[in-house]
Amino acid sequence: MKVLIAEDDPVIALGLAERLRSLGHEPIGPVGDGEEAVVRAKDTQPDLYLFDIEMPRLDGLGAADRLAAEGFRRPVVVVTGVDEPGLVERSIASGVGAYLTKPIDARELDAAIKLAAARYGELEALEAEVGRAQQALDDRKLVERAKGLLMSALQLPKEDAFRPLQKTARERNLRLADVARRIVEQQSLLEPKHDVRASSE
Question: Is residue 142 within 8 Å of 177, Cβ to Cβ?
């Protein structure tokens, strides 16, 4: 796993890099502040962020938040030398996967990385499930709208309006929602034409 290290204390940073190597990971960096971490993360596309919370210019939580907002969200492990409840709360609010207090040994680091990666995987799975549910709801609304247009244009009862959609989807090997979308997009073709001469008399 490629792990980006952001830590402003060079001795601690080198120690973290060595522990990562001993665990079979590939350390990237270290970089010394959050701004540099954002730039390096975009350039190197690491698998996980290992960020110190307290750094110059931009702290670790701020860097993780910015990366997530710009489409570079990854599992995050934060480290700090200060045992402060407020930092824990900020970390939770930022979606941090694991939180470590210095000094950090290899076993703690290994557990934190595994925990952060697992939590990140669970979050992605949950978001995908929500996305599928939303897509299913949107598809259903689209099909209902297309049925309404067919009922109006072809004078079909509600129970018969679904059959043309099913038939077209089956014959053309399309999703029902895709057929419905085409009908909605061509709504003007289904609207009854008015006799201009009759309306002007």
Answer: yes
